[in-house]
Design goal:
46% helix; Rossmann fold; 6-stranded mixed sheet; 4-stranded parallel sheet; Alpha-Beta Plaits; 4 domains; Transcriptional regulator; 19 helices; WH-like_DNA-bd_sf; WH_DNA-bd_sf; alpha/beta; single chain; 435 residues
Length: 435
């Protein structure tokens, strides 16, 4: 069962909740707001509690646009389409008996209105229409959107006797007009539009899951001959693969191969990979060529990894180079070439803040952050964390207790593996950690 967090007003929620029955295997949860700007304050909490975030419209979505991009949140919004407009106009004509010339209308794109009129064969002259199309063209300009401008637009026309009813696509404007005593109607929430939007969101989510489950093969070639250090280097790779929930393919010659999944690889932050690169270069006194390949089979992923490794020879011979070939044979790289010296922790204020509060190094906090990403924030035991960080279980428990004291982690229950021995305590990151 998937969970969809809906960010919208209580009015919007009440209008669409009757459509939830179309998706019996989806749980819908509500994060209400009175003004779309408020979404910015709880988008991260909504994302942490759901698989998909669905906004009531484009305006709240664009207020959160930067966070959605930065955090790679699976999010979409209920679109405004011609069906929504046509149903709204039909409802007004039937219930209010008002003509087009007696309406003031606001909507995302003015062209939608004229397209509906054209297809219906209706003359659309002398109709008062105002849009906010520029928001869709330049999302970064969302801060310039002023709801008061649209309230004033409808209010001025009504008080001048030019219109009888305001038809608005902005809920905040609808509420304000009602409070001013100006007749107003909110656009009809179409069942078909809602169902289509949710279906598209679910399809995108399942596609992402499928992509994440692709096999990933990482090929590593050392510029210098490390035959005398082969056991040490292989042991280092095995430690890394444990952290990635991956496996090193046994080999007596290069390239060394690590088998993982695309989902795990894509969750590794660039700063973490740069840190590993610098660490290995210093430890073994050489540079590396790294090829990453994705595929739906091991054979395909290994072939793509070999291709990516080949392309690394086309670039620098004085620094480590990494290239990637995906399941569609698309080449990416060299990766991170313009940011070779980005510190693992110095630019992350949140990491430094946690490290200070729990009296741990920023490096260890970053390792824990990678652990949470690799395990998809599922509940974990002290033993799992100890294995991942290469610590004793007692040390891992001390770290967990410090983080619990500062409300970064919380107790999440117990498990009794194989029904033998004592049950193990499980822990989970809180919203405070995830933010």
């Amino acid at each position: 069962m998937q969970t969809i967090a809906i960010l919208g007003s209580l009015f919007f929620w009440n209008n669409i909740k009757e459509h939830f029955a179309v998706f019996p295997h989806v749980q819908f949860i509500h994060f209400p707001y009175t003004h779309p700007e408020q979404c910015v304050d709880f988008i991260e909490e909504a994302a942490s509690q759901s698989d998909i975030v669905l906004f009531a419209g484009s305006i709240p979505y664009y207020y959160c646009y930067e966070k959605i991009k930065a955090l790679s949140i699976q999010a979409t919004y209920l679109p405004f389409d011609e069906l929504t407009l046509a149903l709204s106009l039909l409802s007004l004509h039937h219930h209010e008996r008002v003509g087009l010339s007696e309406l003031s209308i606001d909507l995302p794109k003015m062209n939608s209105f004229y397209q509906v009129m054209k297809e219906a064969g209706i003359a659309s002259t002398d109709v008062y229409v105002k849009d906010y199309a520029w928001v869709h063209e330049k999302p970064e300009k969302i801060a310039n959107l002023n709801m008061a401008d649209y309230v004033h637009y409808h209010k001025e026309l009504y008080e001048a006797g030019k219109t009888k009813v305001a038809l608005t696509s902005l809920h905040a404007v609808f509420i304000e007009l009602e409070q001013l005593g100006i007749p107003a109607k909110y656009m009809v929430e179409s069942k078909q539009t809602f169902a289509a939007a949710v279906t598209r969101a679910l399809d995108a989510y399942h596609h992402q899951l499928l992509a994440s489950s692709q096999i990933a093969v990482v090929s590593i070639h050392c510029q210098e001959n490390l035959s005398h250090l082969h056991p040490v280097f292989l042991s280092t790779l095995e430690t890394l693969s444990d952290r990635l929930h991956a496996k090193v393919m046994p080999a007596q010659q290069e390239p060394y191969l690590i088998i993982s999944t695309r989902g795990v690889i894509e969750k590794l932050e660039p700063s973490y990979l740069r840190s590993l690169k610098e660490q290995y270069e210093q430890q073994f006194g050489t540079i590396f060529r790294v090829g990453v390949g994705y595929g739906y089979s091991l054979h395909e992923a290994e072939a793509h990894s070999s291709q990516a490794l080949f392309f690394t020879t086309k670039y620098s011979e004085t620094s480590t180079v990494m290239c990637l070939v995906d399941e569609q044979n698309r080449l990416y790289g060299p990766l991170f070439e313009n940011n070779n010296k980005v510190a693992l922790s110095s630019n992350n204020k949140h990491i430094l803040e946690i490290a200070e509060k729990v009296k741990m190094s920023a490096k260890n906090i970053n390792v824990m952050k990678q652990f949470m990403l690799v395990t998809n924030n599922r509940p974990f035991s002290a033993a799992e964390l100890a294995d991942y960080m290469n610590l004793s279980r007692r040390s891992a428990e001390r770290i967990i207790n410090r983080l619990i004291e500062q409300n970064y982690f919380t107790f999440a229950g117990e498990e009794h593996p194989y029904h033998q021995g004592r049950p193990r305590k499980l822990y989970k990151a809180t919203t405070k950690w995830e933010i």
